[in-house]
Amino acid sequence: FYDVGCPSQVAPASPTASPAPSFFKSAPTESDNSEASVTPPPLYPSSNPSAPCVSTSLSTTFDDNVGSYGNMFDVQAFSAAIIIYGVDFYTDVTHLVHYSVYTKLNSFRDDGGRTDMDAWTLVKKGSVNGTGPEGGTPVRDFGNLAIGANEKRSFYVTLNTTDIRYRKITDELPDAKVGDAYVSNEDLEVQVGASVGGYPLTHPDTVLFGKRVWSGTLFYDVGCPSQVAPASPTASPAPSFFKSAPTESDNSEASVTPPPLYPSSNPSASCVSTSLSTTFDDNVGSYGNMFDVQAFSAAIIIYGVDFYTDVTHLVHYSLYTKLNSFRDDGG
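RE: above sequence
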């Protein structure tokens, strides 16, 4: 599924790499149904494979009082491992917004998380129409994002516009500190975090503002047969890094002026949303596929896919991309 004819934010195409030598192996003996060369492990390897899963959620607050590009915050699991499968974030707009959700082990204040995108792992990226003031905007299908028992994991939820909303608590909770618990239940706590005043994070004018509470809901499973490794040691708290807030309105504390959504020499060009399908007439299966997509004379913006499986139970997917052919550059 893609948009075409939008004022393009796509950089000029890079030169196409030279074709790589053939690397495909001869097919192993296969049945008509599968050509997998690796036997799949149990979905949740455990000493207690019959343990039940409970799906539940924890919300912070939707009583916002300021906004910007995004938030960073920590989640501390308690005595049981949890598997986070989605979030609702809060925006007061109802038009299309472009979101990214990242995660890392330990606090966002550790290991370069406040400035270095290499410290983060992308969980989900896409576009969705904001729900607006009526409630959270859903992002689901995180796959198997696990937090081990007694483990801390941080999240960075961001838009590429200043439309994310959250709560500034400097006045109502003057003694609160970044890393304090803001809301909790028997499974986990969401801690006081920071807002991110720019996009991308590496923009030279991006600053973080402390004592901010992400507005949203975490959706998770608990009590599942755990595939979570033992918790890693928690890193030592990093020194405070929050900058003084610039003069701000009640509505926004962005430190970076947002660029046009689609910077272009033709900003009035219209977008057309359309799609292209291959085939659903399958005759074999395995773990996944690699394939190339060649654009023609117009830039396109891909905002989603449908993949095909013949099962109806929960599956865990990952979607990757790279420039040029999957056969090049070690793909």
